[in-house]
Amino acid sequence: MSLKKIVPTKTKAWKLLESHFSEIKSAEIKDLIRTNNPDNYKINWEDFTVDISKNRLDDKALSLLFELASECGVEEAISKQFNAEIINETENRAVLHTAIRTDGNEKILLGNNDLVPSIIQTRKKIQEFTDDVISKKIKGSTNKAFTDIVNIGIGGSDLGPVMVVEALKHYSSRLKTHFVSNVDGDHVLEILKDLNPETTLFIVVSKTFTTQETISNASTIKNWLVSSLGQKSVIKHFAAVSTNQKEIQKFGIDPDFVFPMNDWVGGRFSLWSSVGLSISLAVGYLNFEKLLMGANKMDLHFKTSSLEKNIPIVLSLVSIWYNNFFKCETEAVIPYTQYLHRLPAYLQQAIMESNGKSVDRSGNKISYQTGNIIWGDTGTNSQHAFFQLIHQGTKLIPCDFIGFNKPLYKDNTQHDKLMSNFFAQTEALMMGKTKIEVENELTSSGISKENLTFLTPFKVFEGNKPTNTILINRLTPENLGSLIAMYEHKIFVQGIIWNIFSYDQWGVELGKQLASKVLKEIEGNSVSKHDSSTNYLLNKYLSNS
Ligand code: G6Q
After folding, report:
1. pLDDT digits (tens, 9 = 90+) for 133-154
2. Under a CB-based contact definition with an 8 Å cutoff, are residues 175 and 147 in contact?
3. Which of 20, 170, 512, 530 is the catalytic position?
4. Does ligand 1 come within 6 angstroms of the Cβ of 97?
5. Cα separation of 272 and 231, whole Å?
């Protein structure tokens, strides 16, 4: 059965939210926080504490947002996704990235076929391969153990693995992991320059095995390898993750080194599958499995918790409140750990590729805002950069602050400093600094009256800037899995409420077609069929390249 097609703006809850919004849109968080029921704004789950108190929300807005979720059929949609119904309707597919992180104690039926045995079998293959490479049982063509792994993939076949490998660096195996994604030859050659072909294993990750960037990078690398170790080395130095068996065979990859993907897992949700092979090699299989089990726990929480205590649902509703009522264009994600420095880039793809849609599930043009624009960087670095705009700019930017109770190394002194920034920022964003406070501060610094009058307006902070605080015990593989799954489910809930299809990506598909058309023209040295600007620029490129 297909997903319900409910236009959110026509629901009863939306209308009530609109009128309630006009009543509280100027309310101050610092006042709301005193009168709201604190229990409604905090969720404690496993190692997570999620606090949404510092938002421009009151109890009534929150309860209307839950009504909106119910009216839009969120709970029913969750069941449909987990029951393998064809909810990716434009591609006629079920959406089962949650299945690949199963704990194995259930049946997951796609039609009459239980997917669990093949999922466990693939996991076993990943484990054996990982163990054999790390233990030096699998070696390169000159009988030397591998020291370096290169993941060759782009988009969903790159961003998830690279983000997780960076995030779990503390848990690294003896292997060094590198990522080649861009079709930019300079990117490939820059990475190859420090690698020894004899001790490097390449993993080509491409669901389709036709993506221009990946195949072109894989060919360049193959030539580089062959030129130093000969044609016979290819079979020992390449592994592949793909659905396209024919192309893999043509490339010359050992069938034992081929790992499957499934069409019911979208690229940007695939790090849990064989696409995560480089993660498994980078941190060891057991840590990879812990990552999956952490995500599985979040799946269970998402499936079984009430709307009010359901972390992904609550976060998605807060986000809709700002996106559709306050008309905020962007959201920032600020992790207070350097390990998560790739999280914002990963979320940009996951969120913007999924919910960047302007046609609803009935095929009609949408009249309200959908996909949020996501950006961010780690704290405290970002405090010394774009936080100026969040504190004092003209735009309202809701932020997720992600922090950890414990550091990974035992340096609590530095960690306390890091986390005092974390807490101080969300408080300052909410409280701001009043004119009187600024004047008192300046007076006590002994400044002249004239200077005080001049400086005061620049030093006032309006405050009332919203934040969610996601406080996690420690950055473990399990907790990282839960965190990523939390955002995945948030995306899904927002897509359901916005009445769009979150699991297709026609905009990305278009990009793939366009480049090959232009490339043919560049290669043929004849460009004339475009608009005047594109013709001019292409000819300029041709005459100088
Ligand atoms: C993800 C997108 C996209 C895709 C890449 C790579 O959801 O569809 O980012 O992952 O274009 O595609 P291949 O894995 O087929 O090379």
Report:
1. 999 999 999 999 999 999 999 9
2. yes
3. 512
4. no
5. 33
211 C-alpha to ligand 1 centroid (Å): 8
Residue 457 placed within a domain? no
Please tell me whether residues 274 and 327 are part of one structural domain.
Answer: no
- In whole angstroms, give the CA distance from residue 205 to residue 126: 14
Q: Is 75 a catalytic residue?
A: no
* Pair 13, 154 in one domain: no
For residue 479, what are the contacts with CB-CB under 8 A and spacing of at least 6? Answer: 47, 48, 294, 472, 473
- Residue 122: give its domain's CATH number: 3.40.50.10490
Active site residue 512: yes
* pLDDT, tens digit, 9 for 90 and up, residues 367-404: 999 999 999 999 999 999 999 999 999 999 999 999 99
- What percentage of the chain has pLDDT greater than the value 90? 94
- Neighbour-count burial of 365, counting CB atoms closer than 10 A to its CB (0-12 exposed, 13-18 middle, 19+ buried): exposed
Its pTM surpasses 0.85 = yes
Based on the fold, state whether residues 216 and 344 are members of the same structural domain: no
Task: Please indicate, yes or no, whether residues 400 and 369 belong to a single structural domain of this protein.
Answer: yes
Domain assignment present for 76? no
Give the chain's domain count: 3
Whether residue 334 has its Cβ less than 6 Å from ligand 1: no
Residue nearest to atom 5 of ligand 1 (CA): 155
Q: Is the CB of 505 under 6 A from ligand 1?
A: yes
Spot the catalytic one: 384, 395, 410, 449: 384
Domain holding 328, by residue range, is: 8-71+305-431+466-502
